[in-house]
Predict the 3D structure of the following.
Amino acid sequence: MKDEIYPFVNPPLNFGYDALEPYIDEKTMCLHHSRHLQTYTDNLNAALRDRPQLQRMPLWKLTQGSLPDSVKQNAGGIYNHRFYFDGLCPCAAQRPSGALANAITRQFGSFFDFRKQFLDTALSVFGSGYAWLTARGNRLTIRKTANQEVPPFSERHILNLDVWEHAYYLKHYNMRADYINSWFCVVNWSKAERNFTHS
Ligand code: MN
């Protein structure tokens, strides 16, 4: 995904919009994917149409450095959303396993402590943004980004959580913590572990 180039497309999700019920509702998933992510995709294509020198640049590179806002923000919107959707799965209540589970325990004390710290970070995003789990070597970091900023690619991206209000407002209104606790029930920990071990 990160190496894709112009023109960008918005592929269907690996599961139905209703597959994450009751944790993330069908209408939110449908609007989030078919409207919000689609708009970032359309807007990035429009921004690149008259910039042939950027058309061969991979998606990840379009999210970094000093590029026009219309390019960088929309590229970030695509990367962050696709990473978020890829990090979800209908098989509820997975737990981390293997090398990632060991790293979490080593770094945070326990999965419970990790979860608390991730929740606190996600709650502390002021306005719109994301909470992230990233890694350098075996060292994990919980961090946040504003709007559609993307963490540097000198870190491996393991997991992200969209805390823009459009990700939860229809079901949870202003209760971001309720949404985060629901999200923990549909995290694709297998995917997160592959991100931890394979890049
Ligand atoms: Mn979003």
In short: The beta strands are 129-136, 139-146, 156-162. The mean pLDDT is 96.
